[in-house]
Design a protein that fits this description.
By secondary structure, the protein is of the alpha/beta class. It contains nine helices and six strands, in the order αβαβααβαβαβαααβ. 49% of the residues lie in helices and 16% in strands. Strands 1-2-3-4-6-5 form a six-stranded mixed beta sheet, covered by helices on one side.
């Protein structure tokens, strides 16, 4: 705890929040208790859906799936009273058709937010326009189902509207000089519970 005590105190004084993004596999009871005691540390755990989807893409160096370890870590965070845990889901071929599994997990954990992160083009790999169309359609389906279950989106309407135009009408987006697709791909979409 002493490693970050000074930084955490300074953050509290200035109103800052420290964001911890983790794969969740190394969360212990000690770590969970520490994070619960420091609410100015916002915790986001990478989780790509159900066991089959997650383990396809997220493996150890020994090629073993990490889903069970991630859920163990999430359960420790919940048991320790760590409120406001979010998840970050990268959308790829491994889970594009099972995004609704995140909502099932939300029933157990009550995530603060579920952040969907579509893939980006890289020098090594281009995701292509077909991916953008499919991911847009799956995300719309996901958010409609999320809304039915009381999970509401933030920053969704603008991002999807921009994405829709850049995917369906790519010349218009280029003419405007706005890469709306890039905004969506950069993860400007999340689903968040509305507090009562």
């Amino acid at each position: 705890e002493s490693t970050y005590a000074k930084e955490l105190e300074a953050m509290k004084e200035f109103g800052f929040i420290f964001s911890l993004i983790t794969n969740g596999t190394l969360i212990t009871q000690e770590v969970a208790s520490y994070l619960a005691a420091h609410p100015r540390v916002a915790v986001t755990v990478s989780l790509d859906g159900d066991k089959g989807s997650h383990d396809t893409a997220r493996r150890t160096t020994k090629y073993e799936g990490t889903y069970d370890a991630v859920l163990c870590g999430l359960r420790m965070l919940k048991a320790a009273g760590c409120e406001g845990v979010s998840i970050s889901c990268t959308i790829g071929e491994h889970n594009i058709d099972s995004l609704d599994k995140l909502l099932e997990l939300n029933k157990e954990f009550g995530f603060l937010s579920i952040n969907l992160n579509p893939l980006l083009d890289t020098e090594q790999r281009k995701v292509g326009g077909k991916y953008a169309e499919v991911v847009s359609d799956r995300m719309i389906t996901y958010f409609l189902k999320a809304r039915e279950e009381g999970v509401y989106e933030t920053a969704l309407c603008g991002a999807l509207n921009l994405s829709w135009h850049s995917v369906r009408f790519p010349m218009t987006a280029r003419q405007l000089g706005v890469s709306s697709y890039a905004l969506l791909m950069a993860g400007w979409v999340s689903a968040t519970k509305v507090s009562a």
